[in-house]
Amino acid sequence: MRTKTLQISTTDGQADAFAAFPDDTERHPGVLMYADGFGIRPVLREMARELARHGYYVLVPNSFYRHGPAPLLELPAYIGEEARPAIFAQLMPLIEAHTADRVLSDADAYLRFLTTQPEVSAGPVAVTGYCIGGLYAMRTAAAHSDHVAAVAAFHGPVGADGADLFSRLTAQIHLGHAEGDVTPEALGELNQALDAAGVSYTSELYPSTIHGFTMSDTDAFSASGLKRHWDRLLPLLDRTLANS
Q1: Which among 150, 147, 208, 136 has a CA at the least distance from the CA of 177?
Q2: Residue range 213-231: average pLDDT?
Q3: Number of domains, the chain
Q4: Closest by Cα among 219, 185, 234 to 205
Q5: Whole-number Å distance between alpha carbons of 94 and 90
Q6: Structure pTM?
Q7: How many degrees, rounded to 5, is the angle at CA 32 between CA 34 and CA 226?
Q8: For residue 167, what are the domain limits?
């Protein structure tokens, strides 16, 4: 497995990023992975490496690079309940400043960079994201419907932009919701909006999970939730990118 720390030119500067990809001479399908609000850190690097082991070039950008390189905050090795209020007090201004326009401008740069790497094969790419990164992934897929074949979002506020976003999606979609985030009624409404948009999707509650369940360095972590995440994500990528 090879890894790199990278700099990506954007309209607003240089975004630092992490990439993981197989250690061979082949070219592999590209996956853009958006981190959760806590950003690039050891657990995200390990998730990127795990995905790369299945034959993908995985690019993880620092979404909040305008405020400095990752890590922007001094995070504890384990993010427990007692640490969250102080961390979120620092994070929320960064998230609020990262407007939809900024997300889309950066997405252009990230995908341009990803698709021009010598280790990345020609053809469609996939986008995945966690927490707020799930919303960034959906926005990216909608804005680049000609090039994004799959999008997956986990415990993210994917309905924040409403049905207009769904209507612009052509990618195959998987949405993995924390049981603690979404009521069955709200999930039904979300799925009705996806049905109305005519997209190909799966959207489900992950049993006995709370927000952030994929992240093993937090007290929200669910081993069964993370396994279910891989059980959904890997077949989605295999179906949509296998011939890239």
Answers
A1: 208
A2: 98
A3: 1
A4: 185
A5: 7
A6: 0.97
A7: 60
A8: 2-241
